[in-house]
Amino acid sequence: MIRIHYLEKEYDNGFLALNGINLHIAKDEFVYLVGSSGAGKSTLLKLLFSVEKPTSGDVFIDSVSLKTLPSKQIPYLRRNIGVIFQDFKLLPRRTVFENVAFALQVMHYQRYRIRKQVTQVLELVGLQEKMSNFPSELSGGEQQRICIARAIVNNPPILLADEPTGSLDPDTSWEIMQLLSKINARRTTVIVATHDKGIVDDIRKRVVALENGRIIRDSELGSYN
Amino acid sequence: MFGDSFFFISEAFTSLKRSGIMIIISIATIAVSLIVFGVFLLLTANLNNIAEFVTSKLEIRVYLNNSMTVSEIQNFKTEIAEMPSVKSVEFISKDIAWDVFKKSFQKLELNDLVGINPLPDSFKVSMYNGREVKKVAKYLEDKFSGYVDDVGYTGHIAERIEMLAACAKYGGLGLVVFLTLATLFIIVNTIRLTVLARNDEIEIMLLVGATKYFIRGPFIIEGFIMGVTGGGAAVSFLYFFYLLFATKIQETIPFFPLVFDKDKLNSIYAVVLLLGAVLGTLGAYISVSKSLSYENMRIRK
């Protein structure tokens, strides 16, 4: 599904964020990317999502090289990858329903299909009662659920999460992680970048640890440390 | 494609509805800048009208030698009429001139004062172009000194008014270009503000896989709607303002040559409305393209 090959990323300011990363993630896997701030977790996700281009090496998603992907093709790549953000990135002037529906409108879905799929996904994340509310009227956990609903509404094969529990309390964090496991069980590859030790130790999955842009550990059903 | 346009239009209206005060301020700004532009167009049109009116009244009077025969007068008239810059030549006999003179100065007992008619026969020569008056007058005086007693023309006034007309025309054109640019600048920046306020929105659209075309659509429709609304407001203001203003002037100075030609006024209003629509659309296009430029495609953190 995802193959990362001698990947290096140097930012314009000379900072070497990723250094010789080799990683293979199979379909349906659930992977934690752990490490302290600046270890390269977010950069790796950005490269997968084609927000940044590799300096050297390459990333292949379903054998498509992201290094040579023309910028016109980027939107179509992104439609196959759902992304969840720490700060949710919701449209403040749109309702919960519209925020989720927007991802489908972008893909030219028919109206009745939009209504059907958005309703289904909002039921899955438990927000069917709050469809017509605006994001600002909801709690942090609920806003993160909207973000998740938007990321998975078109059933993308890959789901990326950048610190999904970073701004949530422990109970809510746990609920969100349960939701991500549920999504993984529906045969979606899930990659979660986090430094939430409690979560990683509680819900055991494959753990890839990064430090100074290198992979220092890769263990099945591993713990944070 | 058709489905997209429907989506763009409904998105644009939803967004306008939810933008509240910001959109009202933006439309008002567009309207005001278009009003300034429109007032200027009306002013130029009126200046041109005045200049044209006055120029059309410019004429040369050629006073003829008393000794000329009827056929000589006829030949001379044909000769003048054939000059390319001459619009028309009218023969005014000394009797008609005398009658007109007497009517103009009824208080003078002219018949008692002067036994005979002292006025000469003359030609009233109208020109196509007021600027030629001086040249033609001099030409007639030199070339036909045998026939001509004297040539009179409203020379200096003619020159000045012609200059005014030229200023109004060419200076006006320059100012129109300048004002169009200024209006473009104001409108683009006004719309840029509404787009900037939604840069996060554009970023999110890019993140969920929207193409640039898809992001631009609603913004451009919004810009068009703002431009047309601002333009419409400006036109209604200009319409009533001009009606009021022109009526007042006409009450005070009845023969002042203001523009009342419906076609001419309507075309000015159409230009203002069109400018609003074009600049609104263009402004939105420029603004969104700036936001979509490469730097902004990165997720800012």
Task: Give a description of the structure.
The complex is a heterodimer of chains A (225) and B (301). Chain A is α/β, with parallel strands linked by helices. Helix content of chain A is 32%, strand content 28%. Chain B is of the alpha+beta class. Chain B has eleven helices and four strands, in the order ααβαβααβαβααααα. Chain B is elongated and about 100 Å long. The chains are: A alpha/beta (225), B alpha+beta (301). Chains A and B meet through helix 2 and helix 3 of A and helix 1 and helix 8 of B.
Secondary structure layout plus pairing:
The complex is a heterodimer of chains A (225) and B (301).
Chain A (H helix, E strand, L loop, with lengths): L1 E9 L5 E10 L4 E5 L6 H8 L7 E6 L2 E2 L8 H5 L2 E4 L11 H10 L5 H14 L15 H13 L5 E5 L7 H16 L3 E6 L2 H6 L2 E7 L2 E9 L3
Helix pairs in contact in A: 3-4, 3-5, 4-5, 5-6
Chain B lengths: L1 H18 L1 H36 L2 E6 L5 H12 L4 E7 L1 H11 L5 H4 L8 E6 L5 H11 L4 E6 L1 H42 L2 H9 L4 H41 L9 H31 L1 H4 L4
Antiparallel strand pairs in B: 1-3, 1-4, 2-3
Helix pairs in contact in B: 1-9, 2-7, 2-9, 2-10, 7-10, 9-10
How do the helices and strands follow one another from N- to C-terminus of chain A?
EEEHEEHEHHHEHEHEE
Structural class of chain B: alpha+beta
The CATH class designation of chain A is Alpha Beta
Number of continuous helical runs of chain B: 11
What is the helix/strand order of chain B? HHEHEHHEHEHHHHH
Descriptive key words:
heterodimer; A: 225 residues; alpha/beta; Rossmann fold; 6-stranded mixed beta sheet; 4-stranded antiparallel beta sheet; globular; B: 301 residues; alpha+beta; Alpha-Beta Plaits; 2 domains; 11 helices; 4 strands; elongated
Task: Put the structure in a nutshell.
The complex is a heterodimer of chains A (225) and B (301). Chain A is α/β, with parallel strands linked by helices.
